[in-house]
Amino acid sequence: MREIRIGLIGAWGRGQLAFSAHRPSENIRIVAGADPSEKSIEKFRAKFANEPIAVYNDYRAMLEKEKLDAVFVCSPDYCHEEHALAALRKKMAVYLEKPMAITVEGCDRILETACQNKTKLFLGHNMRYMSFVHKMKEIIDSGEIGEVKCIWCRHFISYGGDAYFRDWHSERRYSNGLLLQKGAHDIDVIHWLAGAYSKKVTGMGSLSVYDKCEKRGKDEPENSSFNESHWPPLEQKGFSPVIDVEDTNMILMELSNGVQASYMQCHYTPDSCRNYTIIGTKGRIENYGDYGSEMTIEVWNTRKDGLRLHGDRSIQMEPEGGGHGGADEKIVRGFVDFLREDKKPFTSPVASRYSVAAGCAGTESIRNGGIPVEVKTLPAELEKYFI
Ligand SMILES: NC(=O)c1ccc[n+]([C@@H]2O[C@H](COP(=O)([O-])OP(=O)(O)OC[C@H]3O[C@@H](n4cnc5c(N)ncnc54)[C@H](O)[C@@H]3O)[C@@H](O)[C@H]2O)c1
Protein backbone atom coordinates (compact mmCIF):
# COMPACT_ATOMS: atom_id res chain seq x y z
CA MET A 1 0.00 0.00 0.00
CA ARG A 2 1.19 3.50 -0.88
CA GLU A 3 2.66 5.31 2.12
CA ILE A 4 0.64 8.22 3.51
CA ARG A 5 2.64 10.77 5.50
CA ILE A 6 0.60 13.03 7.75
CA GLY A 7 1.42 16.34 9.46
CA LEU A 8 -0.61 18.10 12.14
CA ILE A 9 -1.18 21.84 12.37
CA GLY A 10 -2.30 22.16 15.99
CA ALA A 11 -0.55 19.17 17.55
CA TRP A 12 -2.50 18.96 20.82
CA GLY A 13 -6.04 20.01 21.91
CA ARG A 14 -8.30 18.87 19.10
CA GLY A 15 -5.18 17.74 17.22
CA GLN A 16 -5.34 14.52 19.29
CA LEU A 17 -8.22 13.48 17.05
CA ALA A 18 -5.68 12.73 14.31
CA PHE A 19 -3.83 10.14 16.39
CA SER A 20 -6.18 7.37 15.30
CA ALA A 21 -4.95 7.98 11.73
CA HIS A 22 -1.47 6.77 12.76
CA ARG A 23 -1.54 3.18 11.51
CA PRO A 24 1.96 1.94 10.66
CA SER A 25 0.51 -1.51 9.84
CA GLU A 26 -1.48 0.20 7.05
CA ASN A 27 1.52 2.32 6.01
CA ILE A 28 -0.08 5.54 7.30
CA ARG A 29 2.05 7.57 9.63
CA ILE A 30 1.92 10.84 11.52
CA VAL A 31 5.42 12.12 10.83
CA ALA A 32 5.30 15.74 11.99
CA GLY A 33 3.43 18.26 14.08
CA ALA A 34 3.47 22.06 14.21
CA ASP A 35 2.29 24.11 17.16
CA PRO A 36 3.45 27.45 18.60
CA SER A 37 2.81 26.21 22.16
CA GLU A 38 5.81 24.54 23.80
CA LYS A 39 3.45 22.64 26.13
CA SER A 40 1.52 21.23 23.18
CA ILE A 41 4.74 20.26 21.41
CA GLU A 42 6.05 18.53 24.54
CA LYS A 43 2.89 16.44 24.92
CA PHE A 44 2.88 15.60 21.22
CA ARG A 45 6.52 14.55 21.31
CA ALA A 46 5.84 12.37 24.37
CA LYS A 47 2.91 10.70 22.63
CA PHE A 48 5.18 9.70 19.72
CA ALA A 49 8.27 9.10 21.88
CA ASN A 50 9.08 5.81 20.15
CA GLU A 51 8.55 7.03 16.60
CA PRO A 52 10.61 9.21 14.27
CA ILE A 53 8.65 12.44 14.53
CA ALA A 54 9.53 16.00 13.54
CA VAL A 55 8.21 18.98 15.49
CA TYR A 56 7.93 22.61 14.48
CA ASN A 57 6.76 25.81 16.13
CA ASP A 58 5.94 27.32 12.76
CA TYR A 59 3.62 25.36 10.48
CA ARG A 60 5.19 26.98 7.39
CA ALA A 61 8.52 25.33 8.15
CA MET A 62 6.76 21.96 8.47
CA LEU A 63 4.99 22.35 5.12
CA GLU A 64 8.27 23.45 3.53
CA LYS A 65 10.53 20.74 4.91
CA GLU A 66 8.35 17.65 5.26
CA LYS A 67 7.12 15.59 2.34
CA LEU A 68 3.51 15.31 3.46
CA ASP A 69 0.57 13.71 1.69
CA ALA A 70 -2.03 15.02 4.11
CA VAL A 71 -2.41 17.62 6.84
CA PHE A 72 -4.86 17.81 9.74
CA VAL A 73 -5.75 21.45 10.48
CA CYS A 74 -6.85 21.41 14.13
CA SER A 75 -5.75 24.92 15.09
CA PRO A 76 -8.21 27.54 16.41
CA ASP A 77 -10.96 28.77 14.07
CA TYR A 78 -9.28 32.06 13.12
CA CYS A 79 -6.28 30.12 11.73
CA HIS A 80 -8.25 27.67 9.58
CA GLU A 81 -8.27 29.73 6.40
CA GLU A 82 -4.54 30.54 6.46
CA HIS A 83 -3.53 26.99 7.39
CA ALA A 84 -5.82 25.23 4.93
CA LEU A 85 -4.82 27.51 2.04
CA ALA A 86 -1.11 26.96 2.71
CA ALA A 87 -1.46 23.16 2.67
CA LEU A 88 -3.80 23.09 -0.34
CA ARG A 89 -1.40 25.29 -2.33
CA LYS A 90 1.25 22.65 -1.71
CA LYS A 91 -1.20 20.06 -3.06
CA MET A 92 -1.51 18.29 0.26
CA ALA A 93 -4.86 16.73 1.15
CA VAL A 94 -6.49 18.55 4.06
CA TYR A 95 -8.63 17.42 6.99
CA LEU A 96 -10.04 20.72 8.21
CA GLU A 97 -11.83 21.07 11.55
CA LYS A 98 -15.15 22.87 11.73
CA PRO A 99 -16.03 25.67 11.31
CA MET A 100 -14.39 25.73 7.91
CA ALA A 101 -13.47 29.41 8.42
CA ILE A 102 -14.91 32.36 10.32
CA THR A 103 -16.17 34.17 7.20
CA VAL A 104 -18.06 33.01 4.10
CA GLU A 105 -15.41 34.67 1.92
CA GLY A 106 -12.74 32.65 3.74
CA CYS A 107 -14.65 29.42 3.05
CA ASP A 108 -14.97 30.32 -0.62
CA ARG A 109 -11.24 31.00 -0.91
CA ILE A 110 -10.57 27.55 0.57
CA LEU A 111 -12.97 25.90 -1.88
CA GLU A 112 -11.49 27.79 -4.85
CA THR A 113 -7.95 26.83 -3.83
CA ALA A 114 -8.82 23.14 -3.43
CA CYS A 115 -10.51 23.24 -6.82
CA GLN A 116 -7.62 25.06 -8.57
CA ASN A 117 -5.01 22.70 -7.12
CA LYS A 118 -7.20 19.61 -7.58
CA THR A 119 -6.59 18.74 -3.95
CA LYS A 120 -8.68 16.66 -1.60
CA LEU A 121 -10.51 18.59 1.08
CA PHE A 122 -12.36 16.90 3.95
CA LEU A 123 -14.34 18.71 6.65
CA GLY A 124 -14.38 17.58 10.29
CA HIS A 125 -18.13 17.59 10.94
CA ASN A 126 -18.02 14.56 13.22
CA MET A 127 -21.73 14.79 14.06
CA ARG A 128 -22.33 13.29 10.62
CA TYR A 129 -20.61 10.19 12.00
CA MET A 130 -22.72 9.97 15.19
CA SER A 131 -25.05 7.00 15.47
CA PHE A 132 -28.10 8.96 16.67
CA VAL A 133 -27.82 11.37 13.73
CA HIS A 134 -27.54 8.43 11.31
CA LYS A 135 -30.58 6.78 12.86
CA MET A 136 -32.63 9.97 12.52
CA LYS A 137 -31.55 10.28 8.88
CA GLU A 138 -32.44 6.64 8.24
CA ILE A 139 -35.94 7.15 9.69
CA ILE A 140 -36.46 10.29 7.59
CA ASP A 141 -35.17 8.62 4.42
CA SER A 142 -37.49 5.62 5.01
CA GLY A 143 -40.49 7.94 4.73
CA GLU A 144 -41.83 6.89 8.14
CA ILE A 145 -42.65 10.48 9.13
CA GLY A 146 -43.63 11.63 5.63
CA GLU A 147 -42.16 14.73 4.05
CA VAL A 148 -40.03 16.76 6.47
CA LYS A 149 -41.37 20.26 7.02
CA CYS A 150 -39.89 21.47 10.34
CA ILE A 151 -36.66 20.82 12.25
CA TRP A 152 -36.06 22.29 15.71
CA CYS A 153 -32.83 21.86 17.63
CA ARG A 154 -32.26 22.88 21.26
CA HIS A 155 -28.62 22.83 22.33
CA PHE A 156 -27.88 22.81 26.08
CA ILE A 157 -24.20 23.43 26.95
CA SER A 158 -23.35 23.00 30.65
CA TYR A 159 -19.61 23.44 30.04
CA GLY A 160 -20.01 26.69 28.09
CA GLY A 161 -18.51 28.79 30.86
CA ASP A 162 -15.45 26.55 31.04
CA ALA A 163 -14.77 26.08 27.36
CA TYR A 164 -15.82 29.23 25.53
CA PHE A 165 -15.44 32.26 27.76
CA ARG A 166 -11.90 31.81 29.03
CA ASP A 167 -9.80 31.78 25.83
CA TRP A 168 -9.86 32.88 22.18
CA HIS A 169 -13.47 31.65 21.73
CA SER A 170 -14.77 34.64 23.72
CA GLU A 171 -13.75 37.22 21.11
CA ARG A 172 -15.55 37.95 17.85
CA ARG A 173 -12.29 38.57 16.04
CA TYR A 174 -11.21 34.96 16.74
CA SER A 175 -14.44 32.96 16.58
CA ASN A 176 -16.89 35.34 14.92
CA GLY A 177 -19.40 34.19 17.54
CA LEU A 178 -20.48 31.04 19.35
CA LEU A 179 -23.54 30.62 17.16
CA LEU A 180 -21.07 29.77 14.39
CA GLN A 181 -18.42 28.12 16.56
CA LYS A 182 -20.77 25.53 18.14
CA GLY A 183 -23.79 25.80 15.85
CA ALA A 184 -21.79 25.01 12.69
CA HIS A 185 -22.29 21.34 13.68
CA ASP A 186 -26.04 21.55 14.18
CA ILE A 187 -26.79 23.83 11.25
CA ASP A 188 -24.93 21.29 9.12
CA VAL A 189 -26.96 18.41 10.61
CA ILE A 190 -30.21 20.34 10.05
CA HIS A 191 -29.24 20.93 6.40
CA TRP A 192 -28.32 17.25 6.01
CA LEU A 193 -31.56 15.95 7.54
CA ALA A 194 -33.67 18.44 5.56
CA GLY A 195 -31.85 17.85 2.27
CA ALA A 196 -31.30 21.58 1.57
CA TYR A 197 -29.36 24.63 2.71
CA SER A 198 -30.63 27.76 4.46
CA LYS A 199 -31.44 30.69 2.21
CA LYS A 200 -32.66 33.18 4.82
CA VAL A 201 -31.91 33.50 8.54
CA THR A 202 -33.14 35.69 11.35
CA GLY A 203 -32.10 35.59 14.99
CA MET A 204 -31.90 36.93 18.51
CA GLY A 205 -29.19 36.45 21.08
CA SER A 206 -27.46 38.14 23.97
CA LEU A 207 -24.55 38.12 26.36
CA SER A 208 -26.58 37.65 29.49
CA VAL A 209 -24.49 35.90 32.17
CA TYR A 210 -20.74 35.70 31.56
CA ASP A 211 -20.32 39.47 31.25
CA LYS A 212 -21.30 39.62 34.94
CA CYS A 213 -18.66 37.14 36.13
CA GLU A 214 -15.21 37.88 37.51
CA LYS A 215 -12.48 38.14 34.88
CA ARG A 216 -9.03 36.70 35.46
CA GLY A 217 -6.25 38.89 36.69
CA LYS A 218 -3.40 40.06 34.46
CA ASP A 219 -0.98 37.40 35.72
CA GLU A 220 -3.51 34.60 36.10
CA PRO A 221 -3.02 31.86 33.47
CA GLU A 222 -5.78 31.02 30.99
CA ASN A 223 -7.59 27.82 32.01
CA SER A 224 -10.43 26.46 29.93
CA SER A 225 -10.53 22.91 31.31
CA PHE A 226 -13.96 21.46 32.13
CA ASN A 227 -15.01 20.99 35.75
CA GLU A 228 -18.50 19.94 36.91
CA SER A 229 -17.98 21.73 40.24
CA HIS A 230 -18.04 25.05 38.32
CA TRP A 231 -21.61 25.88 39.28
CA PRO A 232 -23.66 28.09 39.44
CA PRO A 233 -22.41 30.14 36.48
CA LEU A 234 -22.65 33.60 38.07
CA GLU A 235 -20.31 32.56 40.91
CA GLN A 236 -17.47 31.46 38.61
CA LYS A 237 -14.18 33.31 38.12
CA GLY A 238 -11.23 33.39 35.76
CA PHE A 239 -12.99 34.59 32.62
CA SER A 240 -11.39 36.21 29.55
CA PRO A 241 -10.54 39.90 29.81
CA VAL A 242 -12.53 40.46 26.61
CA ILE A 243 -15.90 38.80 26.07
CA ASP A 244 -17.89 40.16 23.14
CA VAL A 245 -19.71 37.01 21.98
CA GLU A 246 -23.24 35.97 22.96
CA ASP A 247 -23.98 33.25 25.54
CA THR A 248 -27.48 32.58 24.20
CA ASN A 249 -28.32 32.39 20.50
CA MET A 250 -31.57 31.59 18.71
CA ILE A 251 -32.01 31.50 14.95
CA LEU A 252 -34.80 30.70 12.52
CA MET A 253 -33.83 29.35 9.11
CA GLU A 254 -35.78 29.12 5.86
CA LEU A 255 -34.29 26.42 3.66
CA SER A 256 -34.32 26.42 -0.12
CA ASN A 257 -36.79 23.46 -0.23
CA GLY A 258 -39.27 25.21 2.06
CA VAL A 259 -38.28 23.39 5.27
CA GLN A 260 -38.30 25.75 8.25
CA ALA A 261 -35.84 25.19 11.07
CA SER A 262 -34.73 26.65 14.38
CA TYR A 263 -31.55 26.30 16.41
CA MET A 264 -31.31 27.49 20.01
CA GLN A 265 -28.11 27.46 22.02
CA CYS A 266 -27.44 28.30 25.67
CA HIS A 267 -24.04 28.22 27.37
CA TYR A 268 -25.10 28.07 31.05
CA THR A 269 -27.48 25.14 31.37
CA PRO A 270 -27.03 22.58 34.20
CA ASP A 271 -26.99 19.69 31.70
CA SER A 272 -25.71 19.06 28.17
CA CYS A 273 -27.59 17.71 25.21
CA ARG A 274 -28.51 18.34 21.62
CA ASN A 275 -32.21 17.70 21.29
CA TYR A 276 -33.67 17.53 17.78
CA THR A 277 -37.33 17.34 16.80
CA ILE A 278 -38.11 16.65 13.18
CA ILE A 279 -41.71 17.01 12.05
CA GLY A 280 -42.96 15.57 8.80
CA THR A 281 -46.38 15.25 7.16
CA LYS A 282 -46.94 11.83 8.80
CA GLY A 283 -45.25 12.07 12.19
CA ARG A 284 -42.35 13.36 14.20
CA ILE A 285 -39.15 12.09 15.79
CA GLU A 286 -37.13 13.35 18.74
CA ASN A 287 -33.88 12.22 20.36
CA TYR A 288 -33.49 12.05 24.14
CA GLY A 289 -29.73 12.05 24.80
CA ASP A 290 -27.14 12.44 22.07
CA TYR A 291 -23.89 10.52 22.48
CA GLY A 292 -21.79 8.88 25.14
CA SER A 293 -24.84 8.33 27.36
CA GLU A 294 -28.22 6.66 27.20
CA MET A 295 -30.13 7.77 24.17
CA THR A 296 -33.44 6.94 22.59
CA ILE A 297 -35.13 8.15 19.47
CA GLU A 298 -38.88 8.37 19.77
CA VAL A 299 -41.09 8.09 16.69
CA TRP A 300 -44.70 9.29 16.90
CA ASN A 301 -46.80 8.52 13.82
CA THR A 302 -50.33 8.04 15.14
CA ARG A 303 -52.42 10.82 16.60
CA LYS A 304 -53.39 10.86 20.28
CA ASP A 305 -54.12 14.29 21.76
CA GLY A 306 -52.10 15.27 24.82
CA LEU A 307 -48.50 14.75 25.89
CA ARG A 308 -46.86 11.42 25.10
CA LEU A 309 -43.30 11.19 26.38
CA HIS A 310 -42.76 7.98 24.44
CA GLY A 311 -43.52 7.53 20.79
CA ASP A 312 -45.33 4.74 18.97
CA ARG A 313 -41.86 3.34 18.54
CA SER A 314 -38.85 3.92 20.84
CA ILE A 315 -35.41 3.12 19.51
CA GLN A 316 -32.86 2.49 22.22
CA MET A 317 -29.38 3.46 20.98
CA GLU A 318 -26.36 1.77 22.55
CA PRO A 319 -23.76 4.25 23.84
CA GLU A 320 -20.50 3.83 21.93
CA GLY A 321 -17.00 4.33 23.34
CA GLY A 322 -14.40 6.67 21.85
CA GLY A 323 -14.27 10.41 21.18
CA HIS A 324 -17.72 12.00 20.79
CA GLY A 325 -19.44 8.63 21.08
CA GLY A 326 -17.06 6.99 18.62
CA ALA A 327 -17.66 9.61 15.93
CA ASP A 328 -14.05 10.85 16.09
CA GLU A 329 -12.51 7.49 15.22
CA LYS A 330 -15.16 6.92 12.52
CA ILE A 331 -14.59 10.28 10.85
CA VAL A 332 -10.81 9.75 10.79
CA ARG A 333 -11.42 6.32 9.20
CA GLY A 334 -13.66 8.18 6.71
CA PHE A 335 -10.79 10.54 5.88
CA VAL A 336 -8.33 7.67 5.38
CA ASP A 337 -10.81 5.86 3.09
CA PHE A 338 -11.33 9.11 1.17
CA LEU A 339 -7.56 9.45 0.69
CA ARG A 340 -6.91 5.84 -0.19
CA GLU A 341 -10.00 4.70 -2.04
CA ASP A 342 -11.78 7.91 -2.98
CA LYS A 343 -14.66 6.67 -0.84
CA LYS A 344 -17.33 9.37 -0.55
CA PRO A 345 -17.46 10.68 3.02
CA PHE A 346 -20.62 11.64 4.93
CA THR A 347 -19.30 15.20 5.22
CA SER A 348 -19.08 17.70 2.40
CA PRO A 349 -16.99 20.86 1.91
CA VAL A 350 -19.94 22.61 0.23
CA ALA A 351 -22.30 21.70 3.09
CA SER A 352 -19.68 22.88 5.57
CA ARG A 353 -19.45 26.21 3.72
CA TYR A 354 -23.23 26.57 3.91
CA SER A 355 -23.21 25.90 7.66
CA VAL A 356 -20.74 28.78 8.00
CA ALA A 357 -22.81 30.94 5.64
CA ALA A 358 -25.99 30.33 7.68
CA GLY A 359 -24.10 30.81 10.97
CA CYS A 360 -22.65 34.12 9.76
CA ALA A 361 -26.05 35.28 8.49
CA GLY A 362 -27.62 34.37 11.85
CA THR A 363 -24.93 36.23 13.77
CA GLU A 364 -25.39 39.27 11.54
CA SER A 365 -29.12 39.18 12.21
CA ILE A 366 -28.63 38.79 15.97
CA ARG A 367 -26.31 41.83 16.03
CA ASN A 368 -28.63 43.95 13.90
CA GLY A 369 -31.98 43.81 15.62
CA GLY A 370 -33.12 40.47 14.21
CA ILE A 371 -33.30 41.57 10.57
CA PRO A 372 -33.71 38.77 8.00
CA VAL A 373 -30.36 38.07 6.31
CA GLU A 374 -30.05 36.31 2.96
CA VAL A 375 -27.46 33.52 2.88
CA LYS A 376 -24.74 34.06 0.27
CA THR A 377 -24.81 31.37 -2.41
CA LEU A 378 -21.81 29.54 -3.81
CA PRO A 379 -21.09 29.82 -7.56
CA ALA A 380 -22.49 26.70 -9.26
CA GLU A 381 -19.22 25.84 -11.05
CA LEU A 382 -17.39 25.67 -7.72
CA GLU A 383 -20.12 23.55 -6.16
CA LYS A 384 -19.81 21.10 -9.06
CA TYR A 385 -16.15 20.31 -8.31
CA PHE A 386 -17.02 18.94 -4.88
CA ILE A 387 -19.97 16.74 -5.89
N1 LIG B 1 -15.38 18.51 15.77
C1 LIG B 1 -15.35 18.61 17.09
O1 LIG B 1 -16.04 17.90 17.81
C2 LIG B 1 -14.39 19.57 17.72
C3 LIG B 1 -14.13 19.50 19.09
C4 LIG B 1 -13.22 20.42 19.64
C5 LIG B 1 -12.63 21.36 18.83
N2 LIG B 1 -12.93 21.40 17.50
C6 LIG B 1 -12.29 22.39 16.62
O2 LIG B 1 -10.88 22.18 16.68
C7 LIG B 1 -10.21 23.43 16.59
C8 LIG B 1 -9.24 23.56 17.75
O3 LIG B 1 -9.97 23.62 18.95
P1 LIG B 1 -9.24 23.45 20.37
O4 LIG B 1 -10.30 23.60 21.38
O5 LIG B 1 -8.40 22.24 20.35
O6 LIG B 1 -8.34 24.76 20.38
P2 LIG B 1 -6.99 25.05 21.17
O7 LIG B 1 -6.99 26.48 21.51
O8 LIG B 1 -6.82 24.06 22.26
O9 LIG B 1 -5.88 24.80 20.04
C9 LIG B 1 -5.59 23.53 19.52
C10 LIG B 1 -4.08 23.42 19.29
O10 LIG B 1 -3.72 24.35 18.27
C11 LIG B 1 -2.56 25.04 18.71
N3 LIG B 1 -2.42 26.33 18.04
C12 LIG B 1 -2.83 27.56 18.46
N4 LIG B 1 -2.49 28.49 17.55
C13 LIG B 1 -1.87 27.84 16.54
C14 LIG B 1 -1.25 28.25 15.32
N5 LIG B 1 -1.23 29.53 14.97
N6 LIG B 1 -0.66 27.32 14.54
C15 LIG B 1 -0.69 26.01 14.89
N7 LIG B 1 -1.24 25.56 16.03
C16 LIG B 1 -1.82 26.46 16.84
C17 LIG B 1 -2.73 25.12 20.23
O11 LIG B 1 -1.48 25.38 20.86
C18 LIG B 1 -3.26 23.74 20.54
O12 LIG B 1 -2.25 22.80 20.73
C19 LIG B 1 -11.28 24.51 16.58
O13 LIG B 1 -11.46 24.97 15.28
C20 LIG B 1 -12.53 23.82 17.07
O14 LIG B 1 -13.71 24.32 16.49
C21 LIG B 1 -13.77 20.52 16.95
Structure summarized in a few sentences:
This protein is of the alpha/beta class and 387 residues long. The protein has helices spanning 38-47, 59-65, 80-89, 104-116, 131-142, 160-163, 172-175, 178-194, 327-341, 349-366, 380-385, and strands at 4-9, 28-34, 54-56, 70-73, 93-96, 121-123, 148-156, 198-206, 248-255, 260-266, 273-280, 283-288, 295-300, 313-317, 373-374. The strands form two sheets. Strands 14-13-12-11-7-10-9-8-15 form a nine-stranded mixed β-sheet, covered by helices on one side. The protein has a six-stranded parallel β-sheet with strand order 3-2-1-4-5-6, with helices on both faces.
